[in-house]
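Page 37, continued from 36.
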């Protein structure tokens, strides 16, 4: 019998007919102290929010035909409420992005007195194939900044898939309401391809632990990227692990290598002890990377890789597509656990819960949802001192559509309540 708490979550449906499914994030939109949910998808192009606890659905933006991809939240206007930064106009697909594809906008929160009010959309920048965005302080504490990560290089088309992406950092303008665009500079244009997972945090042992830097999952595997020491502006990178060798995707007819998604957890009293990945891009392999022992600079050395699980392909024409990894202390024992989100079709579909030790060994593995999962959002949604999670199905026209798309909530029913530690900002 396991000495660890068996995970139990109570499922409920937040939206039985979202008509879309790709991105989901926990954000306290109305400032009432309860985490709401923001969702978007590439099929219908709707950006919506679900108000906790009624889960009333409200429209933020109608981008029909303009393919919203990813978002992040922060108070850009100083009114105490989160606004959103959104990447959209993605193009037909990652293999068919043209020079005109790739827009970034920000959406202004209308305020607590207008829960149904319109969100004004303003232009930030054009950046081809922008696939992930992160808000934080990367090179300065004076102002908030935006980091944008394309999935392919600026050539677009088939050539862009094998070309380095242009990772770009933008300064939030002092006059954010009056600015017609944000000033940005590319911080890396040479080292990374097919960037699909991004974690941002103030990592210990980096040249600037007082600033957010990044862990990336892409064609090169798992990498750290961040500003170097001093104020010269130069950025540094290091590969922690190379992931898997090239594997052919039966769905896409192309070869992918490296890693696709990641999250990093605290275990045994050690921050950033283990990284868990899905490999490669939309891949079928779950792996753990263990932090090197006796080092003050863990992000300048290779981490030891250990395979945890390889999902069988459900059908010769489908990938066993792993799409998201998150980390949080779900059982309230002081160590983090990992959730793996699988797109489907079944049996490679649902959410798997992993409890690991500091050496990357599996202490407990359990499937906690059987539903198609594109993305997982973690928060204490009901305020009971236990971390819950929500999922949105993977439902994208022209790529993969689940048979029963829904937005679902999984309420923690097993941990002993305690003051919860919010999950790290940013995940794969």
């Amino acid at each position: 019998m396991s000495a660890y708490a068996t995970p139990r979550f109570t499922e409920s449906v937040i939206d039985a007919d979202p008509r879309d499914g790709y991105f989901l994030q926990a954000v306290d939109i109305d400032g009432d102290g309860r985490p709401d949910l923001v969702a978007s998808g590439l099929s219908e192009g709707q950006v919506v929010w679900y108000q906790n606890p009624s889960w009333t659905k409200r429209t933020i933006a109608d981008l029909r035909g303009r393919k919203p991809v990813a978002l992040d939240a922060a108070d850009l206007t100083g009114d105490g409420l989160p606004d959103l930064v959104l990447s959209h106009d993605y193009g037909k697909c990652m293999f068919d992005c043209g020079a005109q594809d790739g827009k970034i906008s920000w959406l202004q929160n209308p305020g607590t007195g207008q829960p149904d009010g319109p969100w004004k959309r303003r232009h930030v920048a054009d950046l081809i194939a922008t696939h992930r965005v992160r808000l934080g302080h990367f090179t300065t504490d004076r102002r908030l900044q935006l980091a944008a990560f394309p999935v392919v290089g600026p050539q677009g088309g088939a050539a862009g898939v094998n070309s380095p992406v242009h990772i770009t950092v933008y300064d939030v303008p002092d006059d954010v309401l009056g600015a017609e665009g944000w000033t940005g500079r590319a911080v890396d244009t040479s080292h990374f391809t097919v960037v699909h997972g991004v974690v941002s945090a103030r990592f210990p042992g980096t040249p600037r632990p007082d600033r957010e830097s990044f862990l990336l999952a892409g064609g090169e595997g798992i990498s750290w990227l961040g500003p170097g020491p001093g104020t010269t502006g130069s950025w540094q990178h290091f590969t922690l692990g190379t992931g898997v060798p090239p594997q052919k995707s039966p769905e896409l007819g192309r070869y992918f290598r490296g890693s696709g998604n990641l999250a990093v957890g605290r275990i045994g009293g050690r921050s950033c002890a283990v990284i868990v990945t899905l490999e490669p891009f939309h891949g079928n392999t779950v792996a753990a990377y263990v932090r090197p022992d006796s080092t003050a600079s863990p992000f300048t050395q290779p981490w030891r890789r250990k395979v945890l699980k390889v999902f069988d392909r459900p059908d010769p024409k489908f990938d066993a597509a792993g799409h998201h990894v998150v980390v949080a202390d779900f059982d309230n024992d002081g160590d983090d656990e990992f959730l793996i989100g699988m797109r489907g079709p079944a049996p490679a579909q649902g959410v798997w819960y992993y409890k690991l030790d500091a050496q990357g060994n599996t202490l407990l593995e359990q499937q906690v949802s059987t539903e198609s999962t594109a993305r997982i959002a973690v928060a204490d949604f009901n305020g009971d001192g236990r971390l819950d999670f929500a999922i949105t199905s993977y439902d994208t026209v022209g790529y993969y559509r689940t048979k029963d798309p829904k937005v679902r909530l999984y309420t923690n029913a097993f941990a002993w309540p305690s003051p919860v530690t919010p999950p790290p900002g940013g995940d794969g």
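The helical segments are 157-161. Flag for discussion at group meeting. The chain has a mean pLDDT of 92.
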